[in-house]
Amino acid sequence: MVYKTHFLLVLLGLALAEAFPGEKNKYDNIDIDAICKNKRLLLGYVNCMLDKGPCTAEGRALKENIPNSLENKCSDCEEADKERVKKGATCVRCSYPEEWEAIVEHFDPEKKYREIGREFFGEKSC
Question: Which segment of the chain is annotated as a signal peptide (predicted)?
Answer without folding.
Answer: 1-19
